[in-house]
Design a protein that fits this description.
With 313 residues, the chain is mainly α. It is 80% helix and 1% strand. The chain has a two-stranded antiparallel ribbon. Helix 2 packs antiparallel against helix 3 and helix 3 packs parallel to helix 11. The two termini are 34 Å apart.
């Protein structure tokens, strides 16, 4: 199903451009994370929701982007991408880090009636992030479209093999099927954690995002080998940004509606991991070039983080 989703996205990218293609892949791919998060939220698994959201951001930033750089670097000595678009997304991720750090610091600074105030702060922050995402879409698709145009000739050599209607139908159908699987995925979290003696945090932060991000992973690696790096950036970094600015606020707001007190107060360790990850990715993409070694470094960083959460009691 992930392969079909990737194929449909690539077909739509050929008919539009790599910016739209990456946005579509991120949106439909992240539908899984959103549905998994909402189902877990209804069941009161707040720690699993927070872990899966953070894990999805880290998985796309380090695992998906790293694997894409590595796979692309094996076939191409050096690859280039739109630096301005990548750095704009990177800047928004820095805002996300701030939005996660402030509630964490607030929980330490305020002691009296801290839970109620923290929940109020998280809901207000979620609304701001939600607005920022749609402002970014307006910036990307309307007022500054020229900044997000891929390099000339990068995707013109191929012709679409599916009609527009078939591509859209395939995208929607596969997303629905993957979403149905998401409900069974949430139901198996506690069983897997008990059976394998794993913490719910590790399952939610590492295992669930790897399964949920399979569509983005397959798509990004496939197009990286074809040297379509703007689409890779749109899928990997764009997906992380969408999780942070759209899916996370929607989960907080949905929890508000159904009276589930989901906050943005991640642990100190989780917040530190996100900060370092965003810093590393911004350092890697700032020159607008990619190679296999940078991919290996990002993958190494992801495995270090995953192992840290594995050994954490």
């Amino acid at each position: 199903m992930a392969k079909l989703l990737g194929m449909a996205t690539e077909e739509l990218a050929l008919r539009t451009n790599q910016t739209i293609g990456g946005l579509l892949n991120a949106s439909f791919g992240n539908a899984v994370e959103l549905i998994v998060g909402l189902i877990a939220l209804q069941q009161g698994l707040l720690d699993v929701v927070r872990a899966s959201l953070l894990g999805s951001i880290l998985s796309n930033l380090l695992l998906v982007l790293g694997a894409s750089f590595l796979a692309g670097g094996i076939y191409h000595k050096s690859q280039t991408f739109n630096t301005t678009a990548a750095q704009t997304s990177g800047s928004l991720l820095c805002i996300v880090v701030m939005a996660f750090v402030v509630p964490a610091a607030f929980s330490f600074a305020v002691k009296e009636d801290s839970e109620r105030l923290l929940l109020e702060l998280s809901r207000g922050t979620a609304i701001v992030l939600f607005i920022l995402y749609f402002l970014f879409l307006f910036f990307q698709l309307r007022t500054h479209t020229e900044l997000f145009v891929g390099e000339a000739g990068e995707a013109e050599e191929e012709e679409p093999s599916l009609t527009l209607a078939v591509s859209v139908a395939l995208l929607v159908t596969v997303t629905i099927l993957v979403s149905i699987c998401g409900e069974y995925l949430v139901g198996s979290i506690e069983y897997v954690a008990d059976r394998w003696h794993l913490s719910n945090t590790f399952v939610g932060l590492v295992l669930v995002p790897i399964v949920g991000n399979a569509a983005e992973h397959v798509t990004a690696v496939t197009v990286a080998m074809k040297d379509k790096m703007d689409l890779v950036i749109g899928v990997a970094i764009g997906s992380s940004m969408q999780i942070a600015l759209l899916v996370t606020p929607m989960c907080v707001i949905f929890g508000w509606i159904i009276d589930q007190p989901l906050t943005l107060a991640f642990s100190t360790f989780e917040t530190s991991v996100l900060f370092v990850s965003v810093f590393v990715v911004n350092s890697v993409i700032q020159d607008g070039k990619a190679n296999w070694l940078e991919g290996a470094m990002l993958l190494g960083g992801y495995f270090i983080i995953a192992y840290a959460f594995y050994v954490m009691p």
